[in-house]
Amino acid sequence: MQDCPTFVSHLECSLTGKRYPADTVQGLSEAGRPILVRYDLPAMAKSITKAKLAARAEGGFWRYREMLPVRRSENVISLGEVMTPLIEATNCAKKLGSAALIVKDEGRLPTGSFKARGLALAVSMAKELGIRRMAMPTNGNAGSALAAYCSHAGMESYVFCPDDTPPVNVREIALQGARTFLVNGLINDCGRIVGEGKDKMGWFDTSTLKEPYRIEGKKTMGLELAEQLGWSVPDVILYPTGGGTGLIGMWKAFAELETIGFIGSKRPRMVSVQAAGCAPIVKAYDEGVEHAELWKDAHTVAAGIRVPVAVGDFLILRAVRESRGFAIAVDDDAIVAALAEMAADDGILLCPEGAATYAAYKQALADGRIDKSERAVLFNCATGLKYPLPEAGRSLDMHKPIDFAAMAR
Ligand SMILES: Cc1ncc(COP(=O)(O)O)c(C=O)c1O
Description:
Layout: E1 8-13, E2 19-21, E3 35-39, H1 41-47, H2 50-54, E4 86-88, H3 90-96, E5 100-105, H4 115-128, E6 133-137, H5 141-153, E7 156-162, H6 167-175, E8 179-183, H7 187-201, E9 204-205, H8 214-228, E10 236-240, H9 245-259, E11 269-275, H10 280-287, H11 313-322, E12 326-330, H12 332-346, H13 352-366, E13 375-380, H14 404-407
Parallel strand pairs: 5-13, 6-7, 6-9, 7-8, 10-11, 10-13, 11-12
Antiparallel strand pairs: 1-2, 1-3, 4-5
The structure holds pyridoxal-5'-phosphate.
Pyridoxal-5'-phosphate binds next to α5 and α9.
């Protein structure tokens, strides 16, 4: 990878606008809120063109180097990222009478989820800033990506998961080199342990939105989507929302792309999808308030979106409202049914969180919040193969005559 100019001008508190210098180690702002990376966008616009990008052979998100904060190429940690495909769910769309239903399949990324984007950036920036030891609470996929990118970078990682995190996640985290702990609580309880141990253990708190760079990685979902659609945006994006980094990141990406002249002023309607058993953002959206309350007794089969409280709640709600989108909750039965339906009809094996977006899409079509004529993109954030799958298969006794006619039944 060649050295390439980057255009970070400063860091900025997302609530108060207070500025912090670029290239410094930062957690939350003084106001206790996420810090965003800001760029010299006019200079970026002069340096990068659509043609230059199109000529790049590199497929993954590091192709957007000028729009990202890592200054030196030797600090870029890569595990072979790819541009994730847009797959038309033609059979599901036909059944529902929809004009276009597209799945962006993030399961193709290293460690099998979109968390690779945020953690590649966070770990690369940590390396650039001299951090050697990182820690995070996780519902599974983020911990796996942290472990993998840290190990690849020769850095240490400490990962804390709720003790009912899908076993495959816990095992991949540990195998990829993290010191892995199971906590008898939820992700916010794990987060408290990370915060408490920070000074004692000398680790950097890599929790969702508690450092400025994961969001820059997630931003690349928006950059990539716009490039794949010929530098345009879809009508609607449905995003499974836990901490909301991806939704906030894409919203930031579209604003930056407009400023550098890559897209126009059209924005997709951003739809925040949550599970009915853990829907703090949906409740806040419905009540018209700016911050979400902690959700009690959170439960859902979609482990990745079981996030009872999000430090960037107001940023999620702001993006949803500014885009004239909405927030919607779907119950677990609808998630499980949606997963099975898209797998059988279109051969696309969604993760439960991705399936939540398909369930939400169907619900929103039925209640008129999404129109059949709109081009909708569902984010499938992880490979469906990471999750427990229902038992299947019929036994055949090879020693007896085979009843072939019965097979089609
Ligand atoms: C598969 C999956 N989908 C969605 C999410 C939620 O992502 P975000 O924190 O960006 O809202 C997660 C987070 O763990 C996840 O693992």
